[in-house]
Structures are given as C-alpha cells and as structure tokens.
Design a protein that fits this description.
Layout: E1 5-11, E2 16-19, E3 25-38, E4 44-54, H1 55-64, E5 70-83, E6 89-102, H2 106-114
C-alpha cells in the first residue's frame, strides 16, 4: 500500500513545539495550501492541513519557521482519535512529516512577518552570511594556476 503526501504552503501560525514524557520533541503546525483552481467568484481557495513532525526536525521547524513561512512537507496521512475536553470522541486527520523543507531564505520570511505587524527591528546582515557561490554578475578573478586541473 502507498501512503505518501507532498505539500507546499504557508504556515498559518507559529509552530507549537512540545516534548513527550520521554523527552522526544514533536512540533505541530497548520499549512495553508492553495488549490489549483478558482471558485465561482474567481477566487483561489486554500486547504488548511494539520501537520506533525518529530525529533530533531521538529526542533528545526520550531526554531526557523513561523507564521507566513513557505514550507514543503513530505510525509504520510495519519488518522487518530481521542476523547475531547467535553467527553466526546474527536477524530483527527493529519500529515506526519518525514521531512520539512524551508523554501525561502530566512530574510524573506522575516520581511513577510514584518508586514503582518511585527515591530521588531531587523539586524543588518553582514557579508559573512553572503553566499560565496551566488552569481552576482561580476567576473571571477581566478588565474589558471589556481585551478586544480
């Protein structure tokens, strides 16, 4: 049998990190995934998918993703049920992520949340974080003697 899910969407709120009684980290978050078609009013609708990730990836998600972050999730569908606070049985369907990909640079997700009312000032970036292999359009100054072949 095959149970595989691949999603790309934006987090609807900050991930919630918890630890099991044995100390295993687990993060829960909701991913808003746009549908490929529009409704009768010409608007795009979204599905809101509950996601769960375990262990070290859970801590990474909690540390680096936040509301509005673009993420890719690869995992499986899982259903579970439990007794709610009102004593009624609650059924839940969620994606248990095997991997979560961060699909935008940290600075872009900071800018996006800044547009949502975040009043925290951003620190200026230094050149130490600059990608040395990025193509900035400038010629590279390397002599043939420096090449290993």
């Amino acid at each position: 049998m095959l149970n595989r899910v691949v999603l790309v969407g934006r987090l609807t709120k900050d991930p919630e990190l918890k630890y099991t009684p044995n100390g295993v980290p687990v993060a829960n978050f909701v991913l808003a995934v746009n549908r490929n078609f529009t409704n009768q009013q010409g608007e795009r609708e979204a599905d809101f998918i509950n996601c769960q990730v375990w262990r070290k990836p859970a801590e990474n998600v909690a540390n680096f993703l936040k509301k509005g972050s673009l993420a890719g999730v690869d995992g499986r569908i899982q259903t579970r049920n439990f007794e709610g606070q009102d004593g009624k049985r609650v059924f839940m369907t969620e994606v248990v992520a095997e991997s979560v990909q961060f699909l935008e640079p940290k600075s872009q997700s900071n800018n996006q949340s800044g547009n949502q009312g975040n009043t925290q000032q951003q620190k200026p970036q230094n050149d130490d974080n600059r990608d040395p292999f990025a193509n900035d359009g400038q010629p590279i100054d390397i002599s043939d003697d420096d090449l290993p072949f």
